[in-house]
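My main concern about presentation is that the manuscript never shows what a single data entry looks like. Each protein is reduced to its one-letter sequence and a matching series of backbone shape codes. For the editor and my fellow referees, an illustration may be useful. For illustration, here is how one protein appears when written out as sequence plus structure tokens:
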Amino acid sequence: MSYRICLIDDDVMVLDPTAEGLRHAGYLVLTAPGAAAGLDLIQRSGADAIVTDMNMPGTSGAQLIVEARASWPDMPIIAISGSIDANGESMLDAARALGADALLPKPFRVAQLKQALDTLLRAKAANRVV
């Protein structure tokens, strides 16, 4: 089974090569340039997991996590970020507090992301009632 991943990042220098790497790893990858577009895409097309940048213009990755958790409470969510806020706190700390299942600091390797996705999707599948 090919899992459908919604990859959300406003930086095409991250979005495009990450999407290509995940496709090469066997995932079906939907991409969105921002949180609002990503939520709309998931609503229309569905997804098995979300990978979102935290620092994006407009709707932030933090807001996306809150909205995704409300709509899809069991959806695996991986937050990615290279940002530190004004208080010196990592955006990834905020992502964890909001309910992200895994965190990856930028820069990361696609292999690291694939491993996190595989772990989360296996755990989700194991928890399904058959």
